[in-house]
Design goal:
Layout: H1 3-20, E1 29-33, H2 39-47, E2 52-55, H3 58-71, E3 76-79, H4 88-94, E4 97-101, H5 104-117, E5 122-126, H6 140-152, E6 158-162, H7 172-185, E7 189-191, H8 198-203, E8 208-211, H9 213-216
Parallel strand pairs: 1-2, 1-8, 2-3, 3-4, 4-5, 5-6, 6-7
């Protein structure tokens, strides 16, 4: 199947999963994860109608997206990978949504840059639902207080929560936990679910799913 065929297949599967969960397909946004794929590979999916894309690295996104966004000004770009504090300025300038707010220092730097640039990307707090040492994110027990500090101390409007469950575990309980924490924080947006588990995520209330390899194929990490 071509990339465009795979894109349409994923969009159809998302719509079906939403309907099966008693939700409207329009309630779930597909974030097409284009990391490691160049502009040439992404272009057919843009031309097929996709407008929301996710990137893991600020530098990689800077190399390919400004020109694409100039051609297609309605594109919405999400940062879904870890953000280093020294890249906060670039992230605020380039991304429309930053999904990986995961520590105090990042909250502080984003607040500073947003004020300086007079630009307000939408923000999600990343929760490390599996409490994995190697993975970024706020521990579940600290998530509500961190969201509160983002709002009260840094003046950040947090829109939702994001998680990446452990690869070797049933993702359902992790998605349920994220939804529970979001409820406690008064947040409605949940970024959860990837190529292998987005249907499960939709059952648990995902409002956006991050799908890469099911659309673009295996990644070339060169």
């Amino acid at each position: 199947m071509s990339t465009v065929d795979q894109y349409h297949a994923v969009a159809t599967a998302i719509a079906k999963a939403a309907e099966d969960a008693g939700r409207r397909p329009s309630d779930v946004t597909l974030v097409a994860v284009s990391k490691t794929h160049d502009a040439e590979a992404i272009l057919p999916v843009i031309e097929a109608g996709q407008r929301v894309f996710g990137e893991n690295k600020v530098q990689e996104a800077k190399a390919k997206w400004p020109a694409l966004k100039e051609r297609f000004p309605d594109i919405e770009l999400h940062l879904i990978g870890p953000l280093q504090s020294n890249k906060a300025a670039d992230a605020v300038a380039l991304f429309d949504v930053i999904e990986s707010v995961d520590r105090e220092k990042i909250a502080r730097e984003l607040a500073k840059e947003m004020k300086k640039q007079e630009r307000a990307p939408r923000l999600y707090v990343q929760v490390n639902t599996g409490e994995e040492e190697q993975k970024a994110g706020i521990p579940p027990k600290e998530a509500a207080s961190f969201v509160a500090r983002c709002r009260e101390e840094h003046g950040l409007a947090i829109e939702g929560l994001m998680c990446i469950p452990p690869a070797d575990e049933n993702p359902g309980p992790h998605f349920a936990l994220l939804a529970k924490i979001a409820g406690e924080c008064g947040l409605e947006k949940l970024s959860m679910g990837m190529s292998g588990d987005f249907e499960t995520a939709i059952q648990f209330g995902a409002t956006s799913v991050r799908v890469g390899s099911a659309i673009f194929g295996a990644r070339d990490y060169g």
